[in-house]
Hints:
By secondary structure, the chain is mainly α. The chain is built from seven helices and three strands.
Amino acid sequence: xxxxxxxxxxxxxxxxxxxxxxxxxxxxxxxxxxxxxxxxxxxxxxxxxxxxxxxxxxxxxxxxxxxxxxxxxxxxxxxxxxxxxxxxxxxxxxxxxxxxxxxxxxxxxxxxxxxxxxx
Length: 119
């Protein structure tokens, strides 16, 4: 996380984020409306995660948590670029969203974020 902040010349948002870990997959699905293939969601300074033990068994706990925390850090970035930038940063290059991001990214992370900030 701090490596991203440093490279992007950003600081943590002043609005804190709340992280809620659901107690089971059924609660995750009912709370978020998302399928079990999604490990977590971020919306309006709240992160909702599948149970930690489930994410650890899948081998994705830190990746999912980092992904959602990056949404918090990038809360003001235009929505159409958030997923692509985050997947790119986490080296999930096979995701379609990465191509959309790379089509407009000129290599300067800070400049890209500032010029596409919506607030």
